[in-house]
Amino acid sequence: LEMFSLQLLVSLLPCVLSSPPPNIVVILADDLGFHDVPWHNTETLVAPSLTALSREGVVLEQHYSQSVCSPSRAALLTGRYAINTGLHTGALPSLVPGGLRTDLATLPQLLSDAGYSTWVLGKWHLGMCSESFWPNRRGFDHFHGMLGGAADYYSHRTDDPPVHIPGYDYRLDSEVDVAASGTYSTKLIRDDAVSVILGHNSTKPLFLYLPFQAPHGPLMVDSCYQD
Predict the structure, then answer these.
(1) Residue among 15, 125, 156, 200 flagged as catalytic
(2) Hey, which end of the chain has fewer CB within 10 Å, N or C?
(3) 181-203, pLDDT tens digit by residue?
């Protein structure tokens, strides 16, 4: 049962690949609360795009889910319960020498083997102490975002709470992307996603994983959302 989602995907791939395979976009909202979506909170929450998605799609709510960063990502990308990914104890601290077990197959690895172009834009948080844990070693062709768990939304530095570790955390594949400094992370990820989708070579199907930093702490709202 733990590998059901990945096994189901693999079993369907021959059928899918007999016709033009679909492009896949997976969006992860970090630490989003149950009451933080418009179909649960119609009184104080205004989110027209999410409302439209829920009405035009399917809302699935009878599923077991993790409540914090690293375990939720590990479960999503492996199809396994958190206790079997090595990250069941909670969010992965930045300086801990570990990450998502490297012997576990991931969704992007399977899709890459099936001919997909694979991208991750946003927050990784599945290990940063060794490149063996980094996205480009776990099935993704390209990565643009933060390796750790939290940083300033604009400067992308980790000096302040909740991390308290001096440093800068925004990368383009294996290189430090200093040009990202000063731009709100949600805008960076959004614009990256639009660019990847519009520039995608349609001869290959696309798997795009979008783990936004928002609404994870530190809680920082861009000026365009303020009165």
Answers:
(1) 125
(2) C
(3) 999 999 999 999 999 999 999 89
69 included as an active-site residue: yes
Q: Spell out the residues 6+ positions from residue 173 whose beta carbon is closer than 8 angstroms to its own.
A: 136, 142, 143, 144
Strand pairing class (206-211; 24-28): parallel
Q: Convert the pLDDT of each residue in 91-137 to its tens digit.
A: 998 888 899 999 999 999 999 999 999 999 999 999 999 999 999 99
226 phi/psi in degrees, rounded to 5: -100, 150
HSE-CB at 10 with a 13 A cutoff on CA atoms is: 14
What's the token pair of residue 181?
Answer: 């400094």
Task: Record the pTM.
Answer: 0.88
Q: Is 142 a catalytic residue?
A: no
